[in-house]
User: What shape does this take?
Amino acid sequence: MNKQSRFPYKLYLVLSEADCKGRHFLKVAEESIIGGVDLIQLREKNDDLETFIRKALQLKEITDNYEIPLIINDNLEIAKKVNATGIHVGTHDIPPVAIRELWCNAAYVGYSIEHLEQLDTEETAVSDYLGISPVFKTPTKTDTITEWGLDGIRTIRKLTDKPLVAIGNLDVHNIKSVIDAGADCIAVVSAICGAPNPQKAAYQLKNELLK
Ligand code: TZP
Ligand code: MG
Assistant: This one.
């Protein structure tokens, strides 16, 4: 199986209610899917369990309707409970090896990497895609360690066949260079959630990726 058939997605929306700037996150989600988003991750850092589950179930109705994957950030309990398509974790979250043991139905386990040494680990080996996080410094997430840049993507591309999902200050002006550097998929928050028209923003991003 080649990497495209394992992860055939180009445009990934990382969604949280707070980042939607007062608009309803479900409306942003639906509009972005119509515009061209291929999969959505729900990333809620401050919700209590009950709220996160309620939002995840609401979002799942939409992603199911449009037959796109729903990925849950960090929380395995919620991912399993809402029967999400997969989970995305970082270096300090539940490790992918443990996820595989505890959730055999996960279609996608995404793993963000901060150091090149992580490429040569069991955690990377059992992951379905790697998050290159962040490519560029971003005000949306400030507790990051490595700013990979385009050179970082090129280096990682040479070292692994895993699908690479790039994230961090990506927009319609820089995503082509990120794909050219070796990323398979682009993940964004602000470029869609912060846009005046999320559907149009998603359409323009997707169009740029398909060029
Ligand atoms: N992980 C690394 S950077 C980031 C996350 C969740 C936030 C990206 O947000 P934006 O607004 O697309 O720069
Ligand atoms: Mg995390």
